[in-house]
Amino acid sequence: MGARDQLVRWLPAIVASSMLWLGSVCAADQPLTGITVTGTGVVWAEPDQAVVEVGWTGVEALAGEAVARASGAIEAIRDALERLGVAAHDTRTTSYFVWREERWDERGEPHLLGYRVSHNLQVVVREVDRVGEVITAATAAGANHVGGITFTVADRHAFEAEARSLAVDAARDRAAQLAELNGLTLGTALGIEEVGQGVPAALEAAMDMGGLGGAGVAAGRHAVEVVVRITFDARP
User: Fold this and answer.
1) Which one of 12, 40, 68, 164 is least enclosed by Cβ atoms within 10 Å?
2) Which of 3.40.30.10, 3.30.110.170, 3.10.20.30, 3.40.190.170 is the CATH number of 30-46+155-208+219-236?
């Protein structure tokens, strides 16, 4: 058999194979009708811990004096919290600043007033009913700043799983309604994305430092929120 005969014999097979391949591409490129929705699931939990921000800030004539005074104040605060039962690893520094305090005269020239130091701590309180005691102990030991108080749960996994299930159900119900309103049949999920999880809002502690007493802080309830985005197949 000559070379020309071999070419004639193989050419139909090559053409047939190419047609099948092109046909599969056309089928895959056929657009799908889909519905994309978001669903939110919220589970309310009783807080079992709190995070409190306390700190000290002050001004001294010399930078070294300001730093030393801040160190002494923070050490006294930590000691007081440990005596109250707060573990050392539940207290950490969140911010530390040193800057010059200046005043400008009528000619626009700066005059040094001193050096300000600000040292803030984040304290994890494992018993929410003792938040008031922690704030009182910290301020009695020298803390002159109380920042935000956030109530939360130590282990969010079980609550997140429940909220996630509720979010998926909410998304499916919404997609089913949209499909029905548009004369479509809802199919399976084509893509699922967890958009985010809610963060508990901080309760700002704006209190009179001279009369905290029990602080009167209320934990309330903690919302664990999960949001999902799902695309469903939907056809006429």
Assistant:
1) 12
2) 3.30.110.170
